[in-house]
From TrEMBL:
SUPFAM superfamilies: Periplasmic binding protein-like II, Winged helix' DNA-binding domain. It comes from Pukyongiella litopenaei. GO terms for cellular component: cytosol. This is LysR family transcriptional regulator. Residues 16-73 form the HTH lysR-type domain.
Length: 315
């Protein structure tokens, strides 16, 4: 006699239609069956019946009914997430077939954080293109808060950069490639440039370019500011744009934190300077994250191997 799990798999495999999953995702997006039905061009009674059939097939309640619409239960949230992943995989398959038809050797979408964007990822791309010169590559820049959900939903194959701390461990593999340390940097004309043995008090009069509030580095910096007599910078700009940050550091007396590999080239050519102050935080692992459950495409595997080789060269 089949187990509950096997029974559900057999039934769903025989009965499930993609239109049901499309409806499920749409209901989760709108929080309203009527709006979801309109989006899919089906009647509301038909949409309600499709959701009920899903609940019967999976033997769980997917939505809580409220006077304002519907809210996904934990079961509903899980199935919506898997539904999005299925549609992302279908899209990826269609894109890969189209790329092959046009003569390329597959496609990979890689998310990058600041710590990987200037050195690790370019080296990895050079490496992978030596082996797969026709590989189609798309790079998406952002923070973990933006990129990791897209990785979980299948829109992105890999995310390279500083690894998120204690999050998504059940769903993602987080592979450390090397440790990165953080530098305090400024423009070459900054009043503190060239001074030695700086203390934090020397920095207090200057504005700061800060990492986004959702990042680990920003949380560490905020805690450090609190320990410095609840320090508040006289001016603070939040930015993840390296080009903007570099330009502002060169034109204004601002201070910023940057991963050492990111700032190294601009320091070497005299565009930025490292200030002689070491902060008691900020060092952390740089690596690559990818989905734990689910086979990676050959193009994704090739990019992963190239990231490992590039990290070995850096280290």
């Amino acid at each position: 006699m089949p187990t509950g799990h096997a029974r559900i798999v057999d039934r769903v495999t025989a009965r499930l239609k993609l239109k049901q999953l499309r409806l499920l995702v749409a209901v989760g997006k709108h929080g309203n069956i009527q709006y979801a039905a309109r989006e899919l061009n089906v009647s509301q009674p038909s949409a309600t019946k499709m959701i009920q059939d899903l609940e019967l097939d999976f033997e769980v309640q997917l939505f809580e009914r409220t006077n304002r619409g519907v809210v996904p239960t934990p079961y509903g949230e899980a199935l919506i997430r898997h539904g999005k992943l299925i549609f992302a995989q279908i899209s990826n398959a269609a894109q890969e077939l189209d790329d092959l038809n046009e003569g390329s050797s597959g496609r990979v979408v890689i998310g990058t954080l600041l710590a990987a964007s200037s050195h690790l990822l370019p080296l990895a791309i050079e490496q992978v293109l030596q082996d797969r010169p026709r590989l189609a590559i798309k790079v998406v820049e952002g923070t973990n808060e933006v990129l990791i959900p897209e990785l979980r939903s299948g829109e992105i194959d890999l995310v390279a950069g500083r690894l998120p701390t204690h999050r998504y461990r059940d769903e993602l593999t987080q592979e450390k490639l090397f440790d990165e340390h953080i530098l305090v940097v400024a423009g070459t004309d900054h009043p503190l440039a060239g001074r030695t043995a700086l203390e934090f008090g020397d920095l207090k009069q200057f504005g700061w370019i800060l990492p986004p509030v959702e990042t680990t580095l920003r949380r560490q910096l905020n805690q450090y500011f609190l320990r410095q007599d609840q320090y508040h910078p006289p001016f603070a700009l939040e930015s993840v744009s390296y080009l903007t940050n570099r330009s502002l550091l060169r034109s204004r007396d601002y201070i910023a934190l940057m991963p050492s590999h990111v700032a190294a080239q601009d320091i070497d050519v005299g565009l930025l300077v490292r200030l002689d102050l070491t902060l008691p935080f900020g060092n952390g692992p740089v690596g690559v994250s990818y989905r734990r459950n689910g086979r990676m495409s050959p193009a994704g595997e090739a990019m992963l191997q190239s990231l490992r080789k590039a990290a070995a060269r850096i280290g």
